[in-house]
Amino acid sequence: MSESIKERPILFNAPMVRAIIDGTKTQTRRVMKVQPPSAEYKLSTCIDTTGNKKDKGRQHWITMQGQYSVGDSSQPYFSCPFGYAGDQLWVRENFQPIYAEGWDEGRNPDGSGDPVDYKTGHGYAPSYPATDGIEEFYDEQTEEISSRVWPSIHMPKWASRIQLEITGVRVERLNDISEEDATDEGITSEQVIIGAHCGGGTHTEVSGIRHFYDGGDDEGYECATEAYKALWESINGEGSWDANHWVWVIEFKVIKP
User: Fold this and answer.
1) How far apart are the C-alpha atoms of 211 and 77, rounded to whole Å?
2) Distance between CA atoms of 232 and 240, rounded to whole angstroms?
3) Residue 48: CB partners within 8 Å, gap ≥ 6?
4) What does the alpha-carbon distance between residue 27 and residue 170 come to, in Å, rounded to a whole number?
5) Distance (Å, rounded) from C-alpha 6 to C-alpha 146?
């Protein structure tokens, strides 16, 4: 791998992992840690004009007075914590190592070692064995039968089965997501029966397009952005959509498997 390409971990829950594997998810939104003090601020990218190269290319919030930008020394410089176009992300997800002595020390160079199960319902793993879903196993650490699942934050890099390449990064308000982008976040659609008319001895079914996300309302939503709103709140909590934070929009493609 080129030294200029950086790799970082990124967490996804099981439904989003399924969407990535299925090819329906090519974007993710993450709340920016540094939010602007007020609506009057806009995002600016630092241009090196002073010889202080350490902040070149980084971003910060500035205010505007007419057509001129005004710096604010209280606003820190920051970068996208997930990287930029060309960088790579390895996916962390809930997993279950099939324990053996030293499993957390990594795999052997020839690829041998402990198999891993994943909590997604998609059990393939091109580089090492895996089964479909989580199963009971003999836990050598506790000497008991267990079905313990490790949270994604503890997944070591060797156990990751999905590698992503970032194709674009931008910043926007959460509520500004378009229908197209909501679809790229893993929202799917299909034509379903939404009602029926009975009259004159005939029964006529009415169909329409409804939008869905994995684990969402079985009846679906009228538009992709409404489905994404429900998805966002299912992950980030009630009221998180209305907060309308600024978010990093990270576009990606799968390069492994």
Assistant:
1) 39
2) 8
3) 55, 56
4) 11
5) 37
Calculate the average pLDDT of the chain. Answer: 80
Query: What is the distance of C-alpha 14 from the center of its chain?
Result: 10
Pairing of β 59-65 and β 41-45: antiparallel
Cβ–Cβ under 8 Å, residues 62 and 44:
yes
CB distance 236 to 247 below 8 Å: no
The pLDDT value recorded for residue 226 is 96
Model confidence pLDDT, tens digit, residues 14-25: 899 999 999 999
Distance, CA of 224 to CA of 179 (rounded, Å): 6
Could you write out the three-class secondary structure of 170-191?
EEEEHHHCCHHHHHHECCEEEE
Q: Is the pLDDT of residue 241 over 80?
A: yes
Largest alpha-carbon pair distance within the chain? 83
